[in-house]
Prior knowledge:
This protein is mainly alpha-helical.
Amino acid sequence: MAKFVFQFEAVLKQRRAVERARQLAVASIERERLALEDTIRGMQRQIVREKEDLREQLLAARDGARVDLRSVRLQAGASLDAVARTQRAVLQLAGVHSRLDAARLQLLDAATKRKSVELLKERRFEEWKAEQASIEGRMLDELSVMRAARKGESGDGGDA
């Protein structure tokens, strides 16, 4: 029996490769996004801890304990530095989100192009199957006609 050969198999293979590359790009940017989000969460926890430490030092001063102003100033500076680093990370995250959106659109485009060639392949395969069934039917008809002709020849030869 004949074998189905899709003439655009190379195109389909290339489109699958492009889609895979786009998937890897999206995954890479997604990892970057997750890392930045983890960094931001860690910085937020650090800011909260530093503010609590500063609050405790200031409350101790209110209760009459002696306060080391240098320590308070360093604590406040560290807190402000952590806020600034968090803001930079948030800006980086916004850039990553825009890159991720663009990469997802490229992935969607690649998947659509791959799917269109796969649909063409399915359609061509169905056409090929129908053609093969038609050829097989014609061959069976021809065999039946030949068989009937042989029976007719053998029946005519015996009467003469």
